[in-house]
Design goal:
14 helices, globular
Length: 295
């Protein structure tokens, strides 16, 4: 029996890793990757040694995996029927996870995640994130675009504040970054709703494309995308001074801003809108990666 357990336990653990990957793989570029970049920025800012830096990065990686795992579970548990229409690749639709199994995993993550947050010194941010995703997915916050965008922006605060605080205290300059990223996210997060209009109509949601109309919404989002560059320049890049690498960062951010604006306004349809949302995630990740040299 002992041999059987010794053989089955690694298999079950690997299966759980695989299932968690199936739940979170579509959201890594909006959570695990950019937040890990911010952890690295905090490590560099704090001047940690190699061993401390490696421990901080490993802790952050696990924390943000659980960060998105919990919200992905509640999102997909409460949205199975929508996913059959908009995202048929998700595990509750494909059968990689049962509904009962997903609920059991959510209960486990709901305990393990704040426990890890406590160990890393960011318990309050972990609890805030759990409250936000329950408000968003389970208690109706996603039904109107303003509430949805606001909750996601507050989620950015909980994400980035935890990423920095688990390494070193948050300074005024870091708070400026965090608040700016939350505000910019509020302005452009409606891009993700352009691809899901059919499913959102089915569930009687009032997302930005539904509330404003497709064309008007795209124009508003296009203007917001253009506004990304001056905001990131004056709040994030300019305080670091004039260097060749700040010029490169500004150039990349400017190109990304214009690319996003052009894609939002000109390229339409679920497939193109999905690609545009990917560009948003890459922009978000790049901005936070620049914190490694700018902060």
């Amino acid at each position: 029996m002992t041999m059987t357990v010794a053989v089955q336990l690694p298999r079950r653990m690997w299966r759980e890793v695989f299932i968690s990957w199936r739940f979170v793989s579509n959201d890594l570029w909006s959570t695990v990757v950019p937040a890990s970049c911010f952890v690295v920025a905090a490590v560099r800012h704090a001047g940690l040694g190699a061993a401390e830096a490696a421990a901080a990065f490993a802790g952050g990686l696990l924390y943000f995996w659980l960060f998105i795992y919990g919200s992905s579970l509640i999102n997909q548990i409460t949205g199975v029927e929508e996913d059959r229409l908009n995202k048929p690749f998700r595990p509750l639709v494909t059968g990689d996870s049962s509904y009962r199994g997903a609920k059991a995993r959510l209960m486990a993550v709901s305990v393990v995640f704040p426990a890890l947050g406590w160990l890393l010194g960011v318990l309050l941010w972990a609890l805030l994130w759990q409250l936000l995703y329950m408000l968003h997915y389970a208690w109706g916050g996603h039904r109107h675009w303003f509430g949805k965008n606001l909750l996601i922006a507050l989620g950015v605060v909980s994400q980035l504040a935890a990423a920095w605080q688990m390494v070193t205290p948050i300074t005024t300059a870091v708070w400026q970054w965090i608040v700016t990223m939350a505000a910019l996210t509020f302005l452009i997060i409606g891009i993700q709703d352009l691809r899901d209009v059919e499913g959102d109509r089915l569930l009687a949601r009032r997302t930005m494309p539904i509330a404003l109309g497709d064309t008007r919404c795209r124009l508003v989002l296009g203007v917001c995308c253009v506004a990304l560059l001056p905001v990131t320049h004056f709040v994030m890049v300019a305080p670091a001074g004039f260097h060749w690498w700040t010029v490169v960062i500004d150039a990349v951010l400017g190109g990304a801003s214009l690319l996003l604006a052009g894609r939002v306004v000109l390229l339409r349809g679920p497939a193109e809108d999905h690609r545009t949302q990917r560009v948003v995630e890459w922009w978000y990740t790049f901005v936070l990666a620049t914190a490694i040299v700018l902060l």
